[in-house]
């Protein structure tokens, strides 16, 4: 009898301990059964807010290329860098009634960061140009130079120079290789390539960051849905007029914040389980090898092609190049000034007509091999340095993109209260319509990001690079391999 009492007492104690937990979940389940359609709209709408705001955020990073508004008003900001330069006027992307994509609005600033990385950490101009064989290149350049001299100066000068031109060109190329950093301004070349046409920089960021942009959009769907369930539970427990708007605002804000953080943090891999069995690293840094190859390919084709190098060599500062050549060929009676300028023009013709002088460009591209040089050095960068290729795109106006999610989340919460929780006799019908439209709209954004032109494609427009490579067209818009923040040996 005594033992039975003890057992009964223990049973009662155990039941009392578990009862609150069971009651809480039972309460949630019972409430959901009362209005299943109405409550189901909350996570559905949250998922829609997550994916739609992230989609809009990605679009706002890159488009429109030029400031677009109903009334042409821009927010003008003035900065004093130093006393000598005076004031620099900056046109911010967000005006009262208009917008310009973050990247196009910050083209010069972002391009300068890339210039610093490329010219300081990745490329040594002297090492690159030392690969050229002066005799082979001089043989290829003789024909276009003689043709230009004939057209501009007459056949007389062509006949005089033809016997000694191979020797002169070989000597010029040799001296140029040794002094290339003083003759060709690489930082200016790279900066001009981006600033001249904003689309080049936009396409570069879209290309190397397409997996991250894709993740940013689609993560809004999953994060929004999960947090929407929490939002639904809060509403069940505290059905106050302010609950859904505040919770919705938090959902929109936090989903965007988490997604952006996961792109770049942690920069260095964290070994969760020893021997790299389970590793956590920012999505972009984890793709360093892959992105390095893509970045290098793009840079060689669109920014540092043989066409652009030769064109910059002959146009950046023609007078300086003339002085350099005159030091090598000091005898004006043998090669007058006008003939020397004609020779410079001949090299420029090679630069702007790559299809006509294909042999020159093919030789320079294969010999300089800038793509491999860039890729190798990029892969050597520390993850935090490598992050600077893409992170500036998000850093510039990150708070705006996150705040948009919060604002739209709050609006969605107000809409739900108005439509489905105001005691209207058509509340169930309205809820069903809202549920179905949210699901369909979310699916639309998902498939639009999967198959649409969300992150851009490489255009065949000529940006001055000349030797456009059709290989770019053959590259997929989306990577087949999906990447995640968490990696394991099983994945690899």
Short précis:
The protein is mainly alpha-helical and 492 residues long.
Brief descriptors of the model:
two-stranded antiparallel ribbon, single chain, elongated, disordered C terminus, 5% strand, 70% helix, 492 residues, disordered N terminus
Furnish the topology, listing elements before pairings.
Blueprint: H1 2-34, H2 36-62, E1 68-69, E2 76-82, E3 86-91, E4 98-99, H3 102-105, H4 107-122, H5 125-129, H6 134-153, H7 155-161, H8 165-178, H9 180-183, H10 186-196, H11 198-208, H12 210-237, H13 243-264, E5 270-273, E6 278-280, H14 283-286, H15 288-302, H16 306-315, H17 318-328, H18 337-352, H19 358-368, H20 370-380, H21 383-387, H22 391-396, H23 398-420, H24 427-451, H25 471-474, E7 486-488
Antiparallel strand pairs: 1-4, 2-3, 5-6, 6-7
Helix pairs in contact: 1-2, 2-12, 2-13, 2-23, 2-24, 4-10, 6-7, 6-8, 6-18, 10-11, 11-15, 12-13, 12-24, 13-23, 15-20, 16-18
């Amino acid at each position: 009898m005594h033992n039975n009492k003890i057992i009964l007492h223990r049973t009662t104690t155990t039941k009392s301990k578990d009862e609150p937990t069971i009651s809480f979940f039972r309460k949630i389940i019972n409430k959901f059964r009362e209005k299943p359609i109405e409550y189901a709209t909350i996570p559905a709408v949250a998922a829609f807010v997550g994916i739609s705001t992230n989609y809009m955020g990605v679009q706002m990073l890159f488009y429109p290329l030029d400031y677009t508004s109903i009334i042409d008003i821009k927010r003008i900001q003035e900065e004093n860098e130093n006393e000598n330069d005076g004031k620099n006027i900056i046109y911010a992307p967000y005006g009262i009634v208009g917008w310009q994509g973050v990247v196009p609005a910050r083209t010069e600033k972002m391009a300068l960061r890339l210039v610093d990385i490329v010219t300081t950490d990745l490329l040594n101009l002297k090492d690159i140009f030392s690969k050229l064989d002066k005799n082979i290149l001089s043989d290829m350049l003789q024909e276009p130079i003689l043709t230009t001299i004939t057209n501009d100066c007459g056949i007389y000068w062509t006949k005089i120079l033809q016997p000694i031109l191979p020797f002169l060109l070989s000597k010029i190329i040799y001296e140029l290789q040794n002094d290339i950093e003083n003759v060709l301004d690489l930082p200016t070349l790279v900066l001009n390539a981006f600033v001249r046409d904003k689309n080049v920089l936009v396409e570069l960021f879209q290309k190397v960051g397409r997996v991250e942009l894709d993740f940013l959009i689609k993560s809004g769907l999953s994060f929004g849905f999960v947090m929407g369930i929490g939002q639904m539970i809060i509403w069940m427990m505290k059905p106050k007029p302010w609950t859904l708007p505040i919770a919705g605002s938090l959902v929109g804000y936090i989903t965007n914040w988490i997604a952006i953080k996961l792109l770049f943090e942690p920069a260095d891999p964290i070994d969760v389980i020893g021997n790299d069995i389970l590793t956590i690293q920012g999505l972009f840094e984890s793709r360093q090898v892959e992105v390095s190859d893509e970045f290098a390919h793009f840079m060689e084709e669109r920014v540092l092609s043989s066409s652009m190098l030769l064109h910059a060599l002959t146009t950046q500062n023609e007078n300086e190049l003339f002085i350099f050549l005159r030091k090598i060929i000091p005898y004006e009676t043998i090669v007058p000034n006008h003939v020397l300028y004609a020779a410079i023009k001949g090299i420029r013709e090679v630069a702007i007509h790559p299809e006509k002088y294909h042999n020159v460009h093919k030789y320079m591209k294969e010999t300089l091999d800038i793509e491999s040089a860039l890729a190798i050095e990029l892969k050597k960068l520390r993850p935090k340095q490598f992050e600077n290729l893409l992170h500036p795109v998000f850093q510039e106006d990150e708070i705006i993109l996150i705040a948009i999610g919060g604002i739209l989340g709050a609006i969605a919460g107000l809409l739900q209260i108005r439509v489905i929780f105001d005691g209207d006799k058509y509340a169930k019908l309205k809820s069903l319509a809202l549920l179905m439209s949210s699901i369909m709209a979310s699916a639309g954004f998902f498939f639009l990001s999967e198959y649409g032109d969300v992150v851009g494609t490489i255009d065949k427009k000529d940006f001055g690079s000349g030797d456009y490579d059709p290989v770019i067209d053959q590259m997929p818009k989306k990577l087949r391999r999906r990447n995640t923040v968490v990696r394991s040996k099983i994945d690899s």
